[in-house]
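Convert to structure. Protein one:
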Amino acid sequence: MTSKPTPPDGLVIVDKPSGFTSHDVVAKMRGIARTRRVGHAGTLDPMATGVLVLGVERATKLLGHLALTEKEYLGTVRLGQNTVTDDAEGEITSCADASHVTREAVDTAVAKLTGEIMQVPSKVSAIKIDGVRSYKRARDGEEFEIPARPVTVSSFTVYDVREAVAEDGTPVLDLVVSVVCSSGTYIRALARDLGADLGVGGHLTALRRTRVGPYKLDSARTLDQLQQELTVMPVADAATAAFRRWDIDARRARLLGNGVRLEMPEEYAGGGPVAVFDPEGRFLALVEEERGKAKSLAVFA
């Protein structure tokens, strides 16, 4: 009797195809990795492509912490049209001639959306309002407001401005942009707000995520490639890439294994999770400093 192969243990960096939800990708990976224990570190809209970080087996314990890291995107914003979803997936709700909008005006409006800003997420989104997903309320025709929340847009750059004509004959402008931002930032909401500030409306027509924390497109694989050869980043390597590293001696490793909260060096105070390794290089736990002690977030050994 042949034993069932052990599922891989680590992160899988997927280059998500357009048209797939993040859950679709997770379902596909469950089949490829032959395990139900698969999750993702933050969703990517169906229209969008690019980096989607998946955790398999024990690496699922890292996902909630990886989801909080910085993201980077390349996209196209169309000025001159609003849509119900703030992207090309939704029905067009208004049109305006955008041919008069100058590059100077675009740069001024972009500057207002850079830095620490308050953003209202798109109504057709997974944000919960009183326990119900925003997109469900929108589809049910409800009138509701989503409160603004703080996000950080570290960089918002316009690489190119292209004149175009929409299908209905409206002169529009297509902006090729890159955005580096905090977790929870909606790029399509940036497109909507940019168009609103310029008085012509705007929405996102293309989006590609090029980075999640330290994980970039060059290490991502398509689902077809993963079907041929499953490429998994071991949990220890994933933790080293994403978090600060703390190497401890054998005595402290034993104490940590017994549930003792270790005294943490001052250099690790604040700044988020820290990956703890023993003298043999084994990844023991993800911890954070709390009152000078190491509070365990996830234990791996």
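Protein two, convert as well:
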Amino acid sequence: MTPTLVQHRPHASSTSPSPAETCARARDWAEIQERMLVPLYEAVYERLEVGSGTRLLGLDCGSGLALLIAAARGARVTGVDTDRERLALARERMAPEAGAPPRDVELTEGHAAAVADAERGPYNLITAFQPIGCAAGDSEGLGPAVAAAVELAERGSVVVLTGWGPPERCATSGVLRVAGRLTERLRTGGWRPALRDDLEDVAAQAGLKPDGSGRVACPFGYADMESAVRGLLSTGLYAAAVRATDQLQVEKEIREALHAHRRRDGTVWMPNVFRYLIARTR
């Protein structure tokens, strides 16, 4: 599935984002960036035959696009996230007045423990669709989070972990290196290349048994340079770089890195490959 190219709208920049800018960043994720991962969601759901018998718990569900796709296939879905702004957008998407048909989706702010007493479990599918393997330390909290979620699942349930593919297969890696370069002097945060066993290491920490894997092409396509900058900033992968320098400097360097991927019609296109690991609870 080819990502839709989205027109941009200008936004202000500052070193420390205001609450309004934080909300705008979450909306940029929902309107621009999140859809780039749709091929990953669909490939996983197709392989696992997600449908009416699926009781899914989505970790870091963001603004809920992956949940909507699963619900459209008939799954009963619960999503948790600590990002209040993204979760608010997910609720907005799924509200009856949004004009969409009713979905069997429940959203909760917090971690997996926040739904421990809900009557929607036990779950037979847990997904962690926020890709790891491109920012220093981005997998450190995932193992414990998955382990906590596993307590709410049936024995033998499927857990899906996702991550960035090899840097040589991800054109966006070169643009993300900007984050690493800008934070190098602070020796904190920033970009780092994806490692071959990132997902397997998380599975081991959570006590899971690997049971297959796959790779999916997820090109990042944007209508113009400004949409590309806003979409990439919305991932949160540049947050440490903004703290180390300032918003304007980060935006400037992202634009410079994106020039190699700008096409004659002004659109920006970056082929990428993402990886997923299927594991099972013991």
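The chain is about 35% helix and 20% strand. The domain at 19-280 is CATH 3.40.50.150 (Rossmann fold).
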